[in-house]
Amino acid sequence: xxxxxxxxxxxxxxxxxxxxxxxxxxxxxxxxxxxxxxxxxxxxxxxxxxxxxxxxxxxxxxxxxxxxxxxxxxxxxxxxxxxxxxxxxxxxxxxxxxxxxxxxxxxxxxxxxxxxxxxxxxxxxxxxxxxxxxxxxxxxxxxxxxxxxxxxxxxxxxxxxxxxxxxxxxxxxxxxxxxxxxxxxxxxxxxxxxxxxxxxxxxxxxxxxxxxxxxxxxxxxxxxxxxxxxxxxxxxxxxxxxxxxxxxxxxxxxxxxxxxxxxxxxxxxxxxxxxxxxxxxxxxxxxxxxxxxxxxxxxxxxxxxxxxxxxxxxxxxxxxxxxxxxx
Length: 327
Known about the structure:
Elements: H1 6-17, H2 30-42, H3 46-60, H4 65-71, H5 76-90, H6 94-106, H7 114-127, H8 130-142, H9 148-160, H10 164-176, H11 184-198, H12 201-213, H13 221-233, H14 237-249, H15 257-269, H16 273-285, H17 293-305, H18 311-321
Helix pairs in contact: 1-2, 2-3, 3-4, 5-6, 6-7, 7-8, 8-9, 9-10, 10-11, 11-12, 12-13, 13-14, 14-15, 15-16, 16-17, 17-18
């Protein structure tokens, strides 16, 4: 059993006193709450830990799933979780009812059943669960018999209720034309809304790409760069590669091959395979940096070995220039 951290000790007694009805988020940071839940889990206080994870499930949707799965790695916990959710649901907890729906959706301790999952989520939604409203929409997309029109209505309802993930789903439906006429401009509007609420780096990257290539909006390199920088700040390697490309092309910033090379190196060190190819091409073609065939070969080979097959053509060009046998 792990010791209780100082952070957890201050709120341990309060957290175990009142299940779910207490809004812990008003007083404690998410980090504190997760630390507390893990402490409770290690103490085998499954129900108290579940109180916190259920709150996270309602607030963060998918982000809470790994924590709930952590609890059921021990099969003995599954029945305890199910029984506790049933007990709380009987007392009127909409979130606990949604938790039962989640267990049916994932087949945790019960037979996996789309029909039963949907039925329980509808009960939870009528009880006031926000997460159930969203997941009903997702069920209509994930089922074999897809019902995009119903999913769209659920996501619109969830968005009006203030569930951030709903705007993401609406954005993709408008982008792909699912249940609604394809409309990249509407998709972009929802993506921007969701990114502002969630701060998702992948979403910021997508928004930046839409501005860069004029998908649903006029081409706007300056705005694209703003979103790419957001994504990079959050640690997305692809964003550094995109920023490098902007410097290389002079899009949204003055053309600056040296800065492009610096950003490509950042993306490469972060593990983005295409960045190695781009570094190699800068050294190969002397695009504003000193030509260096040795460096070019090093990075092009690295790119090829990382799965960037297009690098092979450039390697052969390089071999020809160096009067070496082709690969």
